[in-house]
Write a structure and sequence with these properties.
Layout: E1 7-8, H1 14-19, H2 28-49, E2 60-61, H3 63-70
Helix pairs in contact: 2-3
């Protein structure tokens, strides 16, 4: 899901993210939802900061967006 969009900031390490304890119980679909929710957080932030316009460089997902997404996406595997 991250191959083309959304663009991940250089600080985002997917391997490290996959080892994060907060990913315990996450399925592949849950991880996809996490990235989509992170992109939505980045989009909301960009709109608020730029008067409803996406910056010329496009959206970039940072760790702060992923942290916010963890609060909204729950694992589906027990």
């Amino acid at each position: 899901i991250t191959k083309h969009r959304p663009k991940l900031a250089p600080e985002v390490d997917l391997e490290k993210l996959g080892r994060d304890k907060r990913c315990t119980g996450f399925s592949g679909a849950d991880l996809s939802a996490l990235i989509r929710e992170s992109a939505m957080a980045a989009l909301s932030e960009a709109f608020a900061a730029n008067g409803g316009v996406i910056p010329n460089g496009g959206l970039e997902v940072y760790l702060r967006h992923i942290d916010a997404a963890f609060m909204r996406v729950a694992p589906s595997v027990s």
